[in-house]
Predict the structure.
Amino acid sequence: MACLYLDIDETGISARTPHQRDGSPPVRINFEDLPETDSGASQFDTALGMLDPAAGLSECKQAVVTLPPDWVWFRYTSLPFKDKKKLGQILPLELTPSFPDPDPPVVQDFHVSKYPVKGNLYLVFTGTLAKTKIQGIFTALSAMGIAPAVITPRGLVQALAFAREQRDYSELLYIHNTRTEAILTLVKEGFPIMVRALKQMESDPAPSLAREIRSTLACAGVRLNLAPETLRGLPVFLSSQAPEEGLADRINAALKEAGRPLQEAGRPPLQVKEVAVPPWEEMVSADHRPAHLLNFCVGPFRTNSFWNKYKGRLITTLVLALLVFGLGVIDLHRKNSALDARITSVRKASMAVYQRTFPRSGPVPAHAPLMLMESKVKQARLSRPGQGATALPQVPRIGVMEILHELSARIPGDIDVEITRLALNHDRLVLTGLTANFNHVDRIKGLVQASPRFKNVSIQSAAADKTGKQVRFKFILEI
């Protein structure tokens, strides 16, 4: 996605569009050259409106904005934990008393070092910006259909982009020099240890920059708990938007003069090397940026949210879900239609059967032929004499006294037997009793089996009772 790159300072804005990424200089609009308007629009709004649409502005859907570093309050603190959720709750309470004006609402971003810097303390690098500053930028760009993706202080982004490309130095001091300011950034393993901004008021900024370099290194040594001589050999790089002849040499001379006592002790002086401004736009976009870069597009100004990041995929998923739902509804309607057609066909068939079976019944409702046929059949069965639709088959009556008489006749008198239970259920008789021994049980079974009244006699159980003197038996007799 094409990005608009904006650089804002006190005097105007510089804009670089996709058509100007080929090395051509950015478009510069000075606030003092803007025409006066009665609409109440800010200078930033008016300057944005003067950008040439032919430069590819319509292709830009997101923007990367760099701000003056003196708009940002840089603060550093050390805490014994690095959980970002907990830091987000504690940092406002920890840092607000140190701000020049703690009352206005602010926007804050922070980064925490991967490893402790002193003991178990982690260094937390924070940047805070007044909410009114970012709100004007956000509103103006949004009105043009451009979403701010990155809003970061100038100088810091160039330093982190430069440090990312260095393979020979894990620590360095980078100076980004502009027409109105110089930003010094001390970077250690890609993490910004310190950021300092210097307003250039003198005609020759070399002495001021030399003092600021020495002050930055001294403060960093205290913050990291390092001996002063540890940072003496630190490489210092100077890049200028408008290179000034001999500036690096004059800074080196000032550093050499200020550090003469150390040189006499055999310690090498600091050396400033002049380099070109890194192509930082190639490393910063809506989708990627250097690690530990402050970005004030947070909270209500966060445009790189889940919805914006995956908007295309979410819309595609929603369309597919609606398509699947619609196809499901269509398939359900098709199945219901087929089922209705089958029901109608069955009803027509049952109607034809009813009309053939009962041709004189007259018109019949389409939904009731089966019920009417069942009713006709039931009435026909009930109309026959002596026959009912639910009549049970006739079972010959069996007299209990007859069965007892038969059992008494079959069991001889020399067998001592006691009948304790006699249960008759239709054609099945359960006989329970007591006798002297198991031989009597077998004799009783054989004698009863010989009766023509019983189809089958079986011994279901036979066991001695608790005294051991009698046998309890149970017969099943089929009549």
Q: What stands out?
A: The chain has twelve helices and 17 strands.
